[in-house]
């Protein structure tokens, strides 16, 4: 579990790559520059940790491309103390970014193998979510709602209605929508039944699956 000067240097190079791709939020860039992404991957893949690409992890899932993590985090416009729901804990890397941004994070993971691994791993390296839950992300987390923002880290064939309903007025849902290729979509809640929708181009995610596994 080492984090060396070499790793730190590689992270700074990654930050420069993300800037060149259009990421502007200084807090998001600082979080990516700080979090030891190589610890979230099998040690054999250390050279891949700071390349801007997705990589396989356990349970046929992936650790998202850093650009995608930064892009989604930037869209959320997080302020310190914001209550945030993450659908798809995965490796915990996105969770760590949200925590670095000062969010109070509730996260749901449906793959038991990943849930067990990540919920133990994150506190070990100093990242404490409010709660990591083994459950079905399509349902959101009504017991803890409403949320300032919700992030979905898997491709959703449609927008789950419970997620829209669990936002505060002015809250933001960032979700990749589509089957093979997803369109990054932002919903801003304007009133009890009104939502403003923005689309931000194509991304590729593993699918968001219903029920627990």
From TrEMBL:
Gene3D superfamilies on file: Vaccinia Virus protein VP39
Reactions the enzyme catalyzes: [protein]-L-isoaspartate + S-adenosyl-L-methionine = [protein]-L-isoaspartate alpha-methyl ester + S-adenosyl-L-homocysteine
Methyltransferase in keyword set: yes
Principal subcellular localisation of the protein: cytoplasm
GO biological process, one term: methylation
Active-site residues per Swiss-Prot or TrEMBL entry: 64
Compartments where located: Cytoplasm
NCBIfam families: pimt, PRK00312.1
UniProt GO MF annotations: protein-L-isoaspartate (D-aspartate) O-methyltransferase activity
Task performed by this protein: Catalyzes the methyl esterification of L-isoaspartyl residues in peptides and proteins that result from spontaneous decomposition of normal L-aspartyl and L-asparaginyl residues. It plays a role in the repair and/or degradation of damaged proteins.
Pfam families named among the record's database cross-references: PCMT
Keywords attached to this entry: Cytoplasm, Methyltransferase, S-adenosyl-L-methionine, Transferase
Enzyme class: transferase
InterPro entries xrefs: PCMT (IPR000682), SAM-dependent_MTases_sf (IPR029063)
Family: Belongs to the methyltransferase superfamily. L-isoaspartyl/D-aspartyl protein methyltransferase family.
Entry EC no(s): 2.1.1.77
Protein's UniProt name: Protein-L-isoaspartate O-methyltransferase
Classification lineage: Bacteria, Pseudomonadati, Bacteroidota, Flavobacteriia, Flavobacteriales
């Amino acid at each position: 579990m080492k984090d060396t000067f070499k790793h730190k240097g590689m992270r700074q190079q990654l930050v420069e790559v993300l800037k060149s791709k259009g990421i502007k939020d200084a807090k998001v860039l600082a979080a990516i520059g700080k979090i030891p992404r190589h610890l979230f991957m099998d040690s054999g893949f250390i050279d891949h940790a700071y390349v801007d690409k997705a990589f396989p992890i356990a349970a046929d899932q992936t650790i998202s491309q850093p650009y995608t993590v930064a892009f989604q985090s930037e869209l959320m416009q997080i302020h310190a103390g914001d209550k945030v729901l993450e659908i798809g804990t995965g490796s915990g890397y996105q969770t760590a970014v949200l925590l670095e941004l000062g969010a109070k994070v509730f996260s749901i993971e449906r793959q038991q193998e990943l849930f067990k691994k990540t919920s133990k791993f994150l506190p070990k390296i100093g990242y404490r979510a409010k709660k990591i839950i083994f459950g079905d992300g399509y349902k959101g987390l009504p017991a803890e709602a409403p949320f300032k923002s919700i992030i979905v880290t898997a491709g959703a064939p449609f927008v789950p209605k419970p997620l829209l309903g669990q936002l505060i007025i002015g809250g933001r849902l960032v979700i990749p929508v589509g089957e093979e290729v997803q369109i990054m979509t932002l919903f801003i809640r304007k009133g009890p039944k009104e939502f403003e929708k923005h689309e931000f181009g194509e991304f590729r995610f593993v699918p968001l699956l219903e029920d627990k596994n």
